[in-house]
Backbone:
């Protein structure tokens, strides 16, 4: 006990009397003194009352004079014996300007945490799991340079709370772990092992409000050099083979592969398995983006079409149709691209990208015919771009691109001589375009 008093900078409390009559009527339990008499237990409880009063009035030095007696004679009297003392020492640490003294205060703080766990670790609500979390946060706050110690106390706290993981607390630790890994304080195998363990704990948390924290966790992993494609495949390959329909594992693996730009056969394989396990519009779009990255436009468009079929929101469906149109254009399927661009425009008439894709599809499809008929397609495409222009913000990159493309289309209009030869001498005269699969009404446009 003497060493404890020395480390805590405490002085022995005076013995209080005058409680005999009360002690005769009130029986205090053994928590106020294991082998003590009722008079001694009453004395201990009285000291605690003085201790609490001093703490509540922020007379911290006075409060600490009562602490040694309480710890010596009734360490199980009340958990607030340690709660108050911990708060007092945190206050002293924050105010101390003496490095040596501050170190003693820090030692005392964590000794008090350990004593609180020793005597109240079995508390249903504020027991060991809860106390270890508070201890770890304070260790990081007051002992940030002890990297091994920081990792040790956090791991201990997380292990104690494995049945009810705290995603934010896990992220605090994983951020520190990732920093240590980047500073060569943690080996790659250890870092990956910790990642797998923590990721498994996060998988237990299904509350939607935890999604942002989970995204932060994955971002931390991606930011580390350990998030290489080979390591991600190493982590998830066996897990996926063991349970190829586990949506959670497939989603996490695919997302990490995509974010780490692991454009590999493994990513494509995982993507298809992910969609099979979760055949939704969102999953289909995500998988399609992977095939775009790997240059497999045929697969990409297949998944985009699956997303289009499953999507129910008109605006979202319109944007998917635009993506399909763009991908089909890349595959030189201009007529298919035009079909989806037209659907996109019908679903959302304010979707300027739908107009752009339709105009580009017509321009690409103009190769289906020759001469004058081909040139008139550019009238039709020009009209479509003119309708798209006001749908974008003035001066925006999209509007500038529209202007440039309209200028290119104008250069492909039939010449005025050609128009005169065909008897089309009045600008604005209605004209029906017929060029292979491209049909539509436009107007005669004279070259200025």
Residues:
């Amino acid at each position: 006990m003497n060493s404890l008093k020395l480390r805590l900078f405490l002085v022995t409390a005076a013995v209080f009397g005058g409680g005999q009559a009360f002690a005769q009527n009130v029986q205090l339990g053994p928590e106020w003194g294991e082998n003590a008499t009722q008079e001694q237990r009453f004395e201990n409880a009285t000291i605690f009352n003085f201790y609490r009063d001093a703490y509540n009035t922020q007379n911290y030095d006075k409060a600490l004079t009562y602490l040694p007696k309480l710890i010596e004679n009734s360490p199980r009297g009340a958990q607030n014996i340690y709660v108050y003392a911990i708060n007092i020492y945190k206050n002293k640490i924050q105010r101390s300007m003496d490095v040596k003294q501050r170190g003693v205060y820090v030692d005392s703080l964590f000794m008090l945490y350990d004593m609180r766990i020793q005597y109240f670790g079995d508390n249903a609500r504020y027991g060991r799991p809860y106390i270890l979390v508070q201890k770890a946060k304070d260790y990081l706050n007051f002992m940030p340079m002890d990297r091994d110690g920081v990792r040790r106390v956090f791991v201990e706290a997380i292990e104690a709370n494995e049945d009810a993981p705290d995603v934010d607390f896990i992220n605090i630790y994983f951020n520190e772990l990732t920093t240590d890994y980047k500073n060569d304080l943690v080996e790659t195998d250890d870092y990956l092992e910790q990642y797998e363990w923590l990721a498994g704990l996060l998988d237990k948390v299904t509350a939607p409000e935890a999604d942002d924290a989970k995204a932060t966790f994955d971002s931390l992993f991606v930011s580390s050099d350990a998030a290489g494609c080979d390591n991600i495949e190493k982590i998830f390959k066996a897990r996926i083979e063991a349970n190829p329909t586990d949506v959670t594992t497939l989603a996490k693996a695919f997302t990490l592969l995509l974010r780490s730009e692991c454009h590999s056969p493994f990513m494509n394989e995982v993507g298809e398995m992910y969609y099979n396990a979760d055949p939704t519009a969102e999953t289909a779009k995500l998988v399609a983006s992977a095939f775009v990255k790997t240059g497999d436009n045929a697969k990409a468009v297949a998944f985009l079409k699956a997303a289009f079929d499953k999507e129910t929101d008109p605006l979202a469906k319109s944007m998917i149709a635009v993506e399909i149109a763009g991908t089909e254009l890349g595959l030189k399927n201009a007529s298919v691209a035009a079909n989806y661009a037209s659907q996109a425009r019908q679903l959302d008439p304010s979707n300027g990208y739908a107009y752009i894709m339709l105009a580009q599809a017509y321009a690409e499809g103009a190769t289906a015919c020759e001469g004058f008929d081909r040139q008139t397609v550019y009238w039709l495409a020009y009209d479509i771009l003119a309708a798209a222009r006001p749908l974008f913000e003035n001066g925006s990159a999209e509007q500038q691109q529209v202007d440039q493309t309209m200028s290119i289309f104008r250069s492909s209009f039939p010449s005025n001589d050609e128009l005169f030869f065909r008897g089309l001498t009045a600008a604005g005269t209605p004209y029906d375009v017929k060029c292979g699969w491209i049909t539509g009404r436009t107007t005669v446009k004279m070259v200025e």
Q: What stands out?
A: Residues 1-24 have pLDDT under 50 and may be disordered.
